[in-house]
Amino acid sequence: MKLVQIYQCLCDETRLRLLHLLLQGPLCVCHFQAVLNEPQVKISKHLGYLKTRGLVTASRQGNWMIYALPAGRERMPELEANLACLQDCVAGNAVFKRDLARLRKLDLACAPIEAVRGTGRGCC
Amino acid sequence: MKLVQIYQCLCDETRLRLLHLLLQGPLCVCHFQAVLNEPQVKISKHLGYLKTRGLVTASRQGNWMIYALPAGRERMPELEANLACLQDCVAGNAVFKRDLARLRKLDLACAPIEAVRGTGRGCC
DNA sequence: GAGTTATATTCCCCTGGAGGAATGTAGTTG
DNA sequence: CAACTACATTCCTCCAGGGGAATATAACTC
Predict the structure, then answer these.
(1) Over the stretch A61-107, which tens digit does the pLDDT of each residue have?
(2) Residue B70 lies in a domain
């Protein structure tokens, strides 16, 4: 994983928003759709882009795909550093703050991700 | 200056190397050419790209163009944070370390940038 | 002014990738 | 099994931008 590739992953706003949300923990695609309010194909393709390049992992749970930041990313210091930097940089940004707010609403309205994993039901 | 645009500037290796060198201080184009060992047009176009987007400034000193990171970039916290992150990330990288080593050799072999400014002679 | 140096710009070709409509696929539910 | 849900993939179009050859420009030198 070269540094340039990390930046290539970060140079699209949709992907920035996806990664930013993932800093909160694993999420399924319907979460992203609900929070970003973007077409399914767009979300899916950007997640695929990130997955291909190793910035996220995906695991199927029944009908849902759970995306997460890679476990053990302490071993990818460049990624870790840039994600931390990203989180700092967007702290005051309206779009990203709104995303976070929507995510929290979802976590109340929908079953949280743990429930998804446990029961295979109750996502969005 | 939006965050995505910063990442767009960072997502090319040549530009990463240019910015990394500029963290050492202002430099003229011939420095970049000598250190990166890339065609003049390539260097010049990437510097133009960065300049257009406000990541570097340029000032003419006689025959030479002096490029530098923008003064007062403390007021662009995202840029500042990402440049710091970049410097961290490349600390152990062979290409970037070699660039730095070459730059230091140049600073011995050529007149340093202060001399360029003072006399208008003695660059590369 | 002619020549030279340092740098920028223009022209070309070519690839990556963004966006979206339509379709495919895996898993679940009844 | 059929129907449905959640998601991925394929096809298309379009454009930014990377690389290089050639040319232009700006400033200095003589």
Answers:
(1) 999 999 999 988 867 999 999 999 999 999 999 999 999 999 998 87
(2) yes
Give, in Å, how far the C1' of D14 lies from the CA of A105: 37
B124 falls within a domain: no
pLDDT tens digits, B65-104 = 999 999 888 779 999 999 999 999 999 999 999 999 999 9
Nucleotides of chain D in contact with protein CB (under 7 A) are 5-10, 17-22, 26-29
Q: Note down the domain range covering B62.
A: 3-119
CA Rg, chain B, in Å?
14
Q: Give the angle B97-B78-B66 at the CA atoms, nearest 5°.
A: 55
Bridge-partner residues for A65, per DSSP?
A60
For residue B77, list chain A residues with Cβ-Cβ distance below 8 A.
Answer: 89
CB contact under 8 A, B81 and A89: yes
CA B32 to chain centre: 7
CATH code, domain carrying B11: 1.10.10.10
What domain count does chain A have? 1
